[in-house]
């Protein structure tokens, strides 16, 4: 082998890698553009190649240049490796990722079992297929022979690993036969790298070839780097090799250390570390900082060297600050301010480096307050993009048979129009919501929506929706359907639903960067579904939305233009070879950066080691290398959140080690980033807080209500604002969407069943009274009894209520001459502003044999106490007694009320109980009449406001209008004032 010792170089972490490399190559060319153009530079990925071109542009001052051939070495950024040499290579094509996913899903469906031994659903199979694809990639990257699996699991391993081995026959036996002449993507990259290495080995070029920035983590890449190092004019440039590390620490490196990958590569090249030279003569401008971090990250076995650690310059950490935010929200806000501040200085650049995609999205959103769009190297997930969401919602709506929530989510999407103007269609959907989708669920399908809506315009709109979706709905209604048919009709339905009078559906659905990316992916999915054809089993359509979402997950769209030229959002790998003037390293918590060492779903640690796969800690070592490279930027902010989702976090191990070494060396961070947290808080904090007074509307007397029900009188006393909102503003609370019967609905059903039962029976109760009541109850509950919540919770309560009611009613029958159920009544009283009408619908009025009356109010909840009734805050029964005294109930002669009763129909073991509203009904009735007259007179004065909860201790437990009264704002303010 050629001695390559003098051809291995490194660029220290304190220097921008691509800029230092470009400067070196420009110096090598010595101003000759042809010498520069004949160079070939291999960088890790396409992103690094783009950064290299930008570096040459910066160094040339914007002048045009003939650049070297910058080519990616592998597909680490998700793209297939390019051919390096001119001319075609005789290598079979790679199977498309989506077709591979579908074929592996088919094998899993044929082979595997889901939870509980049941066959996996299609989406579960797709998730397992993704894991299998990841295993295939890992094994092919490491160039391991799958035949070794046969001897991997001896008898002393757990039985479930034997089951796993049997399942992995998918990739050892079935997959190669199914793949045929095509290659897996990673295998094709290996062959391209091998072919290039073979060409250069047999026919070395006489032009410069430089492999830069790669640590040779892929064996095929490491071999190609070795070939380049042996070329006559070959060079290898390593990123941030630590030349100052002591030999004991170098020998003790493990896979979690940032230098481990380069140690392994140097061993493969047969080169000693001391033979590696810095590229260029410029010293590392932040060498002391890099040395401090290297000391902090030294292998655990050599940490005793900290005792004899030398001194570091006082300026070692100049430009480095630490930001410990309370939560990710504050962290993102402070980071956005740091980036924004950088733009105040001409030409300065700033980047957020983080693997935390949630934090990245938060920072991007915070920057939008200044109209700044940041370049995100990771891109936006396609499944959360506008067209991606539309496709997912459409599939869910049809699979759920146009259930209310799914229907509104899809039809309210900005892309939904069904051939109509978007604004008109949105108004139509809002009308459909209030007419048919609030309250109990309508019948399934569009036919059920039309029957519930009854409005002609709404029906016409639903007809247009039905016409657009008809092929997809027809396929989804089948017991099983081919995947190709599902995908084809799904895309056709989406295009038809997106159409407007001015634009056809495809023009709206596939527009923009996200639409174009999704159109490409949808085309690949359609082609792949057709390619697998009949070999992919027909699936029950109800599983199609989950399968579609699983297939779409992981796809991203990257913004091509429109972002700010001096702000960047990089993943750790992208930041390895680049530098910005200000670099914020965000999300530095254990489990985020570094990420957790995930357990392999297929093999235990000993099995992975025996098989030849790297340990999970290898990813931690790569993350540590990325951190070390970014840490050497001119200005660095180390950022983390103390709590995430309410849970305390642990700082990244690198922060803990760095803090320990700083304390030992007597160093502090050179800058303080905590003011940014305060500034972020002040951004949205008003200069002063104005006390919010409770609402006190005073409408004119002519606008005030002249009639109320007995139940509304209670509301009038406890919360006048509720009466104002309902009767003067005319506001009504909307029913919940797709509502199951709640306590109020249950009460109505019980009232209806008892009314029907009592109206059918006169005189003593028959022997089968309980059976007849339950039969009536089933008829009343019929429309909702098939709902699980009603059957499991409400119906058993009614059975218990029926048992109690029959027993209790039997004991009372002898004293009752006649019973009136759900009877209407009214009473007019004189008031300053004119007559006021009190009306009621009494649950039950019993005419007793002594000529007096008994009022019964059914309560499925807690009835008011006698004290509340006596105080006038529960006036329903006393006011009904007043109506009865003056003959206000239809068919009931004027009479005194002798008994006012609450029947609490609570269910449970007791079934129910009877409670009296008070011992002196006549006195309560007199007080109620006088109290009502006084209340009406008070509100007939237009100076009397309709206040919200004038007596907080008497406020209603629930009101539809609490949010309109903004009670939480002013009630909290009042409490603060009292304190």
Automatic annotation (TrEMBL):
Cited Pfam families: PDDEXK_1
Residue ranges constituting the PD-(D/E)XK endonuclease-like domain according to the UniProt record: 708-944
Biased composition (Basic and acidic residues): 941-957
UniProt-listed SUPFAM superfamilies: P-loop containing nucleoside triphosphate hydrolases
Ranges where the record places region Disordered: 941-960
InterPro entries: Ds_break_AddB (IPR014153), P-loop_NTPase (IPR027417), PDDEXK-like_dom_sf (IPR011604), PDDEXK_AddAB-type (IPR038726)
Name of this chain's protein: Double-strand break repair protein AddB
Lineage: Bacteria, Pseudomonadati, Pseudomonadota, Alphaproteobacteria, Rhodospirillales
Gene: addB
